[in-house]
């Protein structure tokens, strides 16, 4: 103990107190990590939002799916967004699923009439597996990039078949044009890729 502490009679924290503080801090950090919801595939929230959509309108049909938070391998996100359109109401409503619960629901102010998705679309993980083989993995490795967005829709980027339901995967990297990969959401075949 140095002279100042000896004179004032003050000492540093006891080893027992320091250990207790370290344990409390460790438990708080661990509880924060536990509180994070698991990343899920796009189909994992489908049953839940489909039931909510049917309660909203009997003829509601799923027309669009997108990751609402960052994607993690192998094609999962902590939050997915689902958009439904009701022909009888002439309206669209979006639901967001996080931690296997609906975290947000709202009507779209703009009219978004889109054709319904094919019912048997591949989950996000299968789409990522196809996109990675078609250049996604190479792009990430060479440019220190990552998969930024996944969009499931019908007809928008499809070549040849405007009615096809497709996943469009967008990879990004600093200072590089994005890589787009379009995967047929029923067959899993890559339809096209481009940079832009």
- Return the structural class: alpha+beta
Our measurement of the CA-to-CA distance between the termini, rounded to an integer number of angstroms, reads: 66 Å
Largest sheet: 8 strands, antiparallel
Strand proportion, as a percent range, falls in 25-35%
Alpha carbon gyration radius: 24 Å
Q: Please give the order of strands in the largest beta sheet.
A: 6-5-4-1-7-8-9-10
Short description:
The protein has 196 residues and is of the alpha+beta class. 30% of the residues lie in helices and 34% in strands. The chain is built from 4 helices and 10 strands; from the N terminus they run αααββββββαββββ.
Keywords summarizing the entry:
196 residues; alpha+beta; 2 domains; eight-stranded antiparallel beta sheet; two-stranded antiparallel sheet; 4 helices; 10 strands; 30% helix
Give the secondary structure arrangement, pairings included.
Layout: H1 3-8, H2 15-35, H3 46-56, E1 61-67, E2 71-72, E3 76-77, E4 79-86, E5 91-98, E6 101-107, H4 124-143, E7 146-154, E8 165-173, E9 176-184, E10 190-195
Antiparallel strand pairs: 1-4, 1-7, 2-3, 4-5, 5-6, 7-8, 8-9, 9-10
Overview of the structural elements:
The protein is built from 4 helices and 10 strands; from the N terminus they run αααββββββαββββ. By secondary structure, it is of the alpha+beta class. It has 2 domains: 3-35; 42-195, no CATH class. The N and C termini lie far apart (66 Å). Mean pLDDT is 86; it is low at 1-10 and 17-33. Strands 6-5-4-1-7-8-9-10 form an 8-stranded antiparallel sheet, with helices on one face. Strands 2-3 form a two-stranded antiparallel ribbon.
